[in-house]
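Need tokens for this chain, all 276 residues.
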Amino acid sequence: MKQNLLLSAFVIFSLILISWGVTGHHAIGKIAENHLSSNAQAAVKDLLGNENMADVSTWADQLRMKPEFKYTTPWHYINLPLGLTYTEFKDKVEHMTEDNVYSAMLKQEQILSDSSSTRDKKIDALKFIIHFVGDLHQPMHISRAEDQGGNTIKVNYEGKETNLHSLWDTKLVEHQGLNYEDLAAKYDHIPDGKIKQWQRDPLIKWMWESYQISSTLYKEADETNGHEIDENYYKKHMPIVELRIQQAGIRLAGVLNDIFKDTTAKSEMSGTAPIQ
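Here are the structure tokens for all 276 residues:
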């Protein structure tokens, strides 16, 4: 009985834990590391120590599973109705009073940029940012409340029942059979012009891109009506998955390069322990 309960808890934990899946988040962290400036490399190394950006990319997901940090769960997504224009979308996101991934991202950027922040708060902020940039680029994290970001929309993929959110978190990425290092190596061939453009794009644009994709995915899910999602779906949508992982990695590097552009990394004493 106890063993069954533990197994059930593990399964539930695994399902809730992953956004872009471990492989996707790790690949985003690896791509970002490849595009850090020397200042950013030094600052990240100083804060993370023996860990790298891939290692800590799922830390925020692990953290929110602990009862005392459950309040951070809304920091990973934002719920919006479909059919908004860009102006309506921007207005709703910027004026939302509920906790969400947009406000959480801005808060953590502020902490990491603030010279008065303790070292330990900066460590936590860096880990949050690494994860949140990935979440912002996963289309089903910018989605509707009524279906919990696609979690209640059942679909069949490779002969097994899953849901729309999980399909985009893990199933499509895992279909390639690559580990995160191979995935990053495969995806990290991006022209300089695109890198510069993606890093110039504002945060709200990243979210708008995800919103447009999730709107299309909802429409397609309505049309398939829970039927089998076949290889054609995979072939059609994998270029979108690849693009969003590429953009997340490049933009994450851009965020950190900007924050640390005038910073010389140095160790600081702190009286507050980082969240473990």
